[in-house]
Design a protein that fits this description.
Blueprint lengths: L1 E4 L9 H8 L5 H9 L3 E3 L2 E3 L10 E4 L3 H4 L6 E5 L3 E6 L11 H6 L6 E2 L8 E7 L2 H12 L3 E10 L6 E11 L4 E5 L7 E13 L4 E8 L6 H8 L13 H6 L7 E8 L15 E3 L3
Parallel strand pairs: 8-14
Antiparallel strand pairs: 1-4, 2-3, 2-4, 5-6, 6-8, 7-8, 9-13, 9-14, 10-11, 10-12, 12-13, 14-15
Length: 282
């Protein structure tokens, strides 16, 4: 049994739309079977058909988890006594309910993520397997002693093939979106993003780029690239439907594919990681 509360995004939307968004393994057949059996309730009232929901409605779903969530196969890219690096699939959060961390906690007595990826960003996530390693790695990320590189497929061709972008970002928590400005404004924080063009497709008018984050803010890469006129293909929030349809892209083409450990100061039990690069082919 699962309980959910309807947020403003789904106010006056169909119940099915809300449920499909929250349960990635839910199929139409399973949902309508639940309607027939009255296994779904809105504010404790049994529901027998799809209907609109409103903000703050409490939805109770009596469907087993195996039918609500897709089965996630965790691909472990690197592991030792102190750290674990996994290849995160899309459509799963790093932390929270039914997240990658929660899945790993079923296997490990201690596991904690050292950074996050957006729900629909795929690729490498670094976990600490003990509190000492976590403390060190968080400090190393803070001091920029761990590089994070992403590979992205973006729309358009670049006049400047390699560049470091400096802008300002504002996060609107209510709308779950960020805005980019080239000038500082109240509430905006400075961001820095570097890109290098790896490959160009003149016929399709798109590019493959390597992106390095110097500041790790919410949706930074997606919003920053869209801001300069090169949205990530498949990005439903900062891209455009017209471009995504042109490439038949249903998920964003963004992958975390390189982690580099470049320690400037002592790393204690993790000194052996200095100069190590963990890379995934994408």
């Amino acid at each position: 049994m699962r309980k959910l509360v309807v947020n403003k995004k789904f106010n006056n939307k169909k119940l099915s739309e809300f449920l499909y968004y929250n349960f990635d393994g839910l199929t139409r057949n399973t949902l309508y079977k639940a309607f027939r059996k009255k296994d779904i309730r809105i504010n404790n009232v049994k529901i027998s058909e799809d209907c609109p929901v409103t903000f703050n409605d409490e939805i109770t779903v009596y469907i087993v988890d195996d039918l609500l969530f897709r089965k996630v196969n965790i691909n472990k890219v690197y592991e030792d006594d102190n750290i674990l690096v996994v290849n995160k699939p899309d459509n799963i959060e790093v932390v929270g309910q039914d997240s990658l961390t929660e899945l790993l906690q079923k296997e490990y007595s201690y596991i904690s993520p050292c950074h996050r990826l957006d729900r629909n960003t795929k690729g490498l996530v670094l976990f600490a397997k003990n509190p000492a390693a976590l403390e060190i790695l968080l400090e190393k990320f803070k001091n920029r002693e761990i590089e994070k590189h992403y590979k992205a497929k973006v729309y358009g061709l670049f006049n400047v093939k390699s560049q470091t972008l400096n802008s300002y970002l504002f996060k609107d928590n209510k709308k779950s979106i960020v805005y980019i400005s080239d000038e500082p404004h109240k509430g905006y924080v400075k961001i820095q993003t570097s890109y290098t063009v790896l490959k160009e497709d003149f016929q399709k008018n798109c590019s493959i780029i390597d992106v390095e984050l110097h500041t790790g803010k919410t949706h930074q890469i997606r919003a920053h690239m869209a801001h300069i006129g090169h949205p990530i293909i498949g990005d439903g929030k900062y891209g455009t439907n017209e471009i995504n349809k042109k490439f038949n892209a249903k998920t964003q083409e963004l992958y975390s594919y390189i982690l580099k450990f470049n320690f400037k100061k002592d790393a204690g039990i993790l000194n052996y990681l200095d100069n190590k690069e963990i890379k995934m082919s994408v």
